[in-house]
């Protein structure tokens, strides 16, 4: 959404640069500078709007500045178009003094809009450096936090009752032959509260939970991405390696090919899926995740560990 607004502003500028009236008013150079600035900002705007950034206040302030500049650019170009029509009428009536006033007013507006655009670009230069630092730090943190299904028994203390309640919930849904949707059980808790350990305990209990064709563990991480989740599941249930999966199901192909492949692999199969460390808070993204899991079939049991309480769908048994 945010990127579309900047794209529209750029398109308006490209169109306005060709106006004869703009050339006569000596606005072409200003508009070209504004276009270059917005084109530099455009690739990052949508990324900032949709991805998790460590300093949300800073990212929100810069995004507001960039979108404000884009909106003002659109309004200014629209007024340039109106002024072009009015100037033609004024010329035919011989009202040159009024034409000079209109030109002066537009010059003031163009310069004011240009200041906003150039300010957004200046802020962007500093912000882009900040983003690079955040990305490096984020990757380091993610790598340290990355989890897997292997359980260290010596670390488990006092979670047996929680484990048994989750297993009982999974077994009760298996006995319900009328159920036509998959089971999603969230485990909520603050960092270090043992969410992952509890999920590992359930995941590795092959005595109580039997009959699964596949057991799949996916570390979601703060960087929520449907492609990564889909590719990770494919990697677990097929004989392809992760690098081969990433190459064959790239972002260019889109989610459609990934979902098609998942449906081929999982159709009719019973799956226990753990999505560990979900940070995503956007209700739309969470609904899309639910839809994605539903599409994969009604024989899938899903455990999600998260610190986001609204992700709950059942009672707070597992917090």
From TrEMBL:
A Pfam short name: NB-ARC
Signal peptide start-end: none
Domain NB-ARC: 163-306
GO molecular function, one term: ADP binding
UniProt xrefs under InterPro entries: NB-ARC, P-loop_NTPase
Cross-referenced PANTHER family: NB-ARC DOMAIN-CONTAINING PROTEIN, PLANT BROAD-SPECTRUM MILDEW RESISTANCE PROTEIN RPW8
Protein name: NB-ARC domain-containing protein
Organism per entry: Triticum aestivum
């Amino acid at each position: 959404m945010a990127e579309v607004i900047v794209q529209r502003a750029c398109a308006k500028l490209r169109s306005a640069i060709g106006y004869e009236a703009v050339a006569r008013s000596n606005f072409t150079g200003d508009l070209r500078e504004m276009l270059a600035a917005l084109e530099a900002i455009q690739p990052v705007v949508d990324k900032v709007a949709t991805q998790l950034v460590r300093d949300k206040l800073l990212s929100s302030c810069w995004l507001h500045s960039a979108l404000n500049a884009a909106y003002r650019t659109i309004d200014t170009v629209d007024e340039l178009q109106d002024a072009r029509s009015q100037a033609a009428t004024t010329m035919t009536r011989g009202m040159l003094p009024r034409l000079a006033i209109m030109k002066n007013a537009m010059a003031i507006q163009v310069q004011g809009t240009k200041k906003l655009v150039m300010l957004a670009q200046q802020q962007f230069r500093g912000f882009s450096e900040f983003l690079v630092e955040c990305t490096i730090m984020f990757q380091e943190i993610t790598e340290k936090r990355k989890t897997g299904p292997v359980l260290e028994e010596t670390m488990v203390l006092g979670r047996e009752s929680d484990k048994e309640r989750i297993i009982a919930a999974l077994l009760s849904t298996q006995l319900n032959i009328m159920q036509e949707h998959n089971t999603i059980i969230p485990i909520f808790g603050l960092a270090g509260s043992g969410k992952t350990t509890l999920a590992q305990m359930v995941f590795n209990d092959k005595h109580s939970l039997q009959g699964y064709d596949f057991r799949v563990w996916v570390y979601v991480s703060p960087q929520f991405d449907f492609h990564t989740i889909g590719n990770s599941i494919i990697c677990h249930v097929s004989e392809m390696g992760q690098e081969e999966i990433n190459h064959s199901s790239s972002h260019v192909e889109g989610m459609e090919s990934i979902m098609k492949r998942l449906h081929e692999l999982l159709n009719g199969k019973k799956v226990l899926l753990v999505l560990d460390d979900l940070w995503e808070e956007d209700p739309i993204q969470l609904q899309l995740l639910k839809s994605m899991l539903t599409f994969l079939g009604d024989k899938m049991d899903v455990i999600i560990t998260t610190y986001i309480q609204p992700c709950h769908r059942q009672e707070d048994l597992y917090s």
